[in-house]
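> example.struct
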């Protein structure tokens, strides 16, 4: 057995080397499918299957309160100190649980002030996650005790990038948010819990606040063995109902409780995008296998006399099948090796275009043992898929027929022809499915780009400015920083105008309940509101429909004036003129720096601006002077005459010139942020599926061409007879093209049926276009049909140049 296998390996290698063109085409075709599959599997393995270095990470779950009246997934996953203590101690689902709360950490040094992402962590966090420090120690029980010396633990990435991997900083003191803290440990490279720069020990207490606001904790627990998500959710639902009774304003009217795995909580809907891309490369792999199967079928037909001679010399059917499968396996291994190289190169490109901030910070995307095993498994499977059918067909051929067949007027046997034709139909159907998926994603991406923002994001520089809370608590203190800063920014050469802002449009505002005198309503009225300066509408080029904006004097004097958007007017005023009317913004009275009697007079109405992302409907929104309160986050928007990024250093110097204790974060252009938050994820899926679809079309075109060219060559004798009897070149062309187009048309029909079913799978990734978009379902099949015509026309045209005299002698 081993001797015969070795003989087949040597003979197969020699045979494939003699037919180097055939071997190269087969290996490259397979490598495209295997390489793409391996690259995508690398991403999925490192993002979805094994993204975390924490033991038993698949059992780590978080709690989410979902508003069932909303169609959007997700919900509230952060809880007050009282809620966290109740949920973490009274449930029967988690073995143990930890909490974290993200906060800005301002690090003050001789060079100025920097902002780090800080994470407040509850006791036993490091023990729970099961990762030992690289240097020093983790936070210990004593660090959480009241009155304990303040400590913190640093992230490896931050240690390398900010402190140049200097080990001497361990056990030194750093001024963080005005408090001197000792660095007690540095974590290893893959420990990135919460994507924080540093972790600060803190024990949750009831009624706690941070910078004047309630402190909310994200809870993570390890589910007990044998407890399902549904069972866990049911247990927590009892506790949530009790909490909703005690704190009705913190819970939706109708809600459900969900347990979300740690990976799902980070990756979210990007999981669906990855699986769609994986399905696309799976189809591409099948198309490649189909092409190679047809190549082997055609090659097996030309080797029928060889197999007949070998059979006559004593080779059994099993030996012939073994020989062909060995050759297929050699091709598959070659495709796998080349595919692994393509996957390694392609993985670098994939990493470059993966949208930011949607994969776990702990993930390291790379080729590993699991990926290489996957590649080998795919190679073996493809060898069986594309090699078995030709081997079985060749082994069934009648010995006598093969020895005396002159091949005149044949196409290699009706059985071989039927299989080749079926493979072409199969490939066309798969290619159409890929193309329709790409077309739908392209239409969705185009629709997203056509969304009217209501503002102009070009030439705008953005910076969030976390102000030191010990010095900027009141409205007067905040205004004392921004008044001179805005004057300095507006005087810079190249700056058109600058404004203060509390949030970054078009991604929301501060929510608040509202009241309007004389308006009776059964449900609570709500609106978003923004804190801004007088240049806000000019910077963003927001159009006024009626009335006016704020003046500099009105902003400086914190006048009780408000500008509303068109949706606010329509929803709450209807046909009534709102100019001069008053609005009660209740949230302003609840801030740590409250604004008493928060009634504001409407002075202007602006055109609607997207304020809940690009895909969700616009909500009612209002704008008030930023000087009315010292609460809420703050930042600046700067419109420039030229490239905004060229003004970054100048803006930074003006901010530090106003107060060196203020750090900059979230800096960049508004266009970049909109691209990152709204366009990058749909672009990722669209680009990859489109690339794979185009490769699939190329492979299908080659497949159709090769089969028609091969069939036409085998029919040379028949074509010579037809031409000798009076058929002209047009008749021959129509004969050949008609043969190919029947296969293409049948594949298109089957592909349309399959696409109708599979379109539902990508419906969640579409926006602004139906999963059964008529334009896509008409244009894509038409384009594929035209490609099929071209693939058939080339061999058809060649057939018209056949000399009848030579064709009649064709063997």
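> example.seq
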């Amino acid at each position: 057995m081993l001797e015969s296998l070795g003989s087949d390996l040597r003979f197969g290698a020699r045979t494939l080397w003699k037919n180097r063109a055939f071997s190269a085409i087969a290996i490259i075709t397979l490598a495209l499918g295997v390489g793409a599959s391996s690259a995508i599997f690398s991403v999925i393995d490192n993002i979805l299957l094994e993204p975390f270095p924490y033991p038993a990470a698949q059992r780590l779950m978080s709690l989410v309160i979902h508003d069932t009246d909303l169609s959007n997934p997700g919900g509230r996953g952060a809880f007050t100190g009282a809620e966290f203590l109740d949920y973490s101690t009274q449930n029967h689902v988690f073995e143990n649980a930890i909490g974290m709360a993200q906060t800005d950490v301002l690090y003050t040094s001789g060079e100025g002030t920097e902002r780090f992402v800080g994470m407040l962590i509850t006791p036993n966090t490091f023990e729970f996650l099961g990762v030992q420090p690289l240097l020093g120690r983790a936070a210990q029980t004593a660090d959480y005790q009241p009155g304990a010396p303040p400590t913190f633990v640093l992230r490896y990435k931050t240690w390398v990038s900010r402190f140049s991997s200097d080990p001497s900083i361990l056990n030194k003191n750093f001024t963080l948010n005005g408090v001197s803290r000792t660095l007690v440990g540095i974590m290893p490279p893959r420990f990135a819990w919460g994507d924080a720069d540093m972790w600060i020990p803190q024990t949750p207490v009831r009624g706690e606040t941070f910078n004047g606001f309630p402190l909310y904790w994200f809870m993570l627990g390890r589910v007990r063995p044998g407890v399902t998500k549904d069972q866990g959710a049911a247990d927590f639902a009892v506790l949530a109902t009790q909490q909703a009774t005690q704190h009705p304003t913190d819970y939706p009217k109708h809600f459900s409780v969900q347990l979300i795995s740690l990976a799902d909580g980070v990756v979210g809907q990007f999981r669906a995008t990855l699986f769609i891309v994986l399905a696309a490369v799976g189809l591409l792999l099948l198309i490649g296998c189909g092409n190679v199967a047809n190549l082997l079928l055609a090659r097996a037909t030309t080797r029928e006399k060889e197999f007949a001679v070998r059979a006559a010399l004593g080779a059994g059917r099993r030996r012939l099948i073994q020989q062909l499968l060995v050759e297929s396996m050699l091709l598959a291994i070659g495709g796998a090796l080349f595919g692994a190289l393509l996957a390694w190169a392609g993985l670098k490109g994939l990493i470059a275009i993966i949208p930011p901030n949607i994969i776990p910070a702990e993930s390291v995307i790379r080729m590993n043992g699991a990926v290489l095993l996957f590649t080998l498994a795919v190679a073996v499977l493809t060898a069986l898929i594309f090699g078995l059918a030709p081997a079985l067909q060749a082994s069934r051929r009648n010995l006598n027929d093969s020895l005396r067949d002159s091949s005149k007027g044949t196409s290699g046997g009706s059985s071989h022809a039927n299989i080749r034709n079926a493979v072409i139909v199969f490939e066309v159907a798969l290619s159409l499915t890929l193309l329709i998926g790409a077309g739908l994603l392209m239409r969705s991406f185009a629709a997203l780009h056509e969304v009217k923002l209501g503002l102009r994001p070009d030439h705008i520089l953005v910076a969030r400015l976390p102000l030191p809370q010990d010095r900027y608590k009141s409205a007067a203190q905040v205004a004392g920083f921004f008044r001179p800063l805005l004057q300095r920014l507006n005087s810079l050469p190249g700056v058109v105008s600058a404004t203060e802002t509390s949030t970054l449009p078009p991604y929301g505002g501060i929510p608040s309940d509202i009241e309007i005198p004389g308006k009776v309503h059964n449900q609570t009225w709500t609106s978003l509101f923004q804190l801004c300066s007088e240049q806000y509408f000019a910077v963003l080029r927001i159009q006024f429909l009626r009335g006016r904006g704020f003046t500099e004097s009105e902003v400086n004097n914190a006048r009780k004036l408000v500008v509303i958007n068109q949706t606010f007017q329509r929803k709450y005023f209807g046909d009534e003129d709102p100019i001069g009317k008053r609005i009660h913004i209740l949230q302003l009275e609840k801030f740590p720096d409250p604004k008493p009697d928060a009634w504001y007079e409407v002075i202007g109405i602006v055109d609607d601006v997207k304020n809940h992302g690009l895909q969700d409907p616009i909500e009612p929104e209002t704008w008030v002077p930023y000087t009315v309160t010292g609460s809420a986050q703050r930042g600046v928007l700067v419109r420039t005459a030229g490239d905004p990024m060229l003004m970054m250093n100048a803006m930074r110097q003006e901010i530090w010139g106003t107060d060196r204790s203020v750090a900059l974060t979230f800096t960049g252009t508004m266009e970049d942020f909109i691209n990152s938050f709204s366009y990058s994820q749909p672009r990722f899926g669209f680009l990859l599926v489109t690339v794979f679809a185009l490769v699939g079309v190329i492979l299908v075109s080659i497949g159709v061409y090769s089969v028609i060219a091969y069939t036409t060559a085998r029919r040379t004798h028949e074509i010579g007879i037809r031409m000798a009897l009076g058929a002209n070149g047009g008749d021959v062309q129509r004969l050949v093209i008609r043969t190919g187009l029947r296969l293409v048309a049948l594949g298109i029909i089957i592909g349309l049926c399959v696409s109708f079913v599979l379109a539902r799978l990508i419906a969640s990734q579409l926006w602004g276009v139906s999963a059964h978009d008529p334009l896509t379902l008409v244009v894509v099949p038409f384009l594929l049909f035209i490609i099929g015509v071209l693939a058939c026309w080339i061999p058809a045209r060649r057939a018209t140049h056949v000399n009848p005299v030579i064709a009649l002698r064709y063997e």
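> remarks
The chain has 23 helices and 24 strands.
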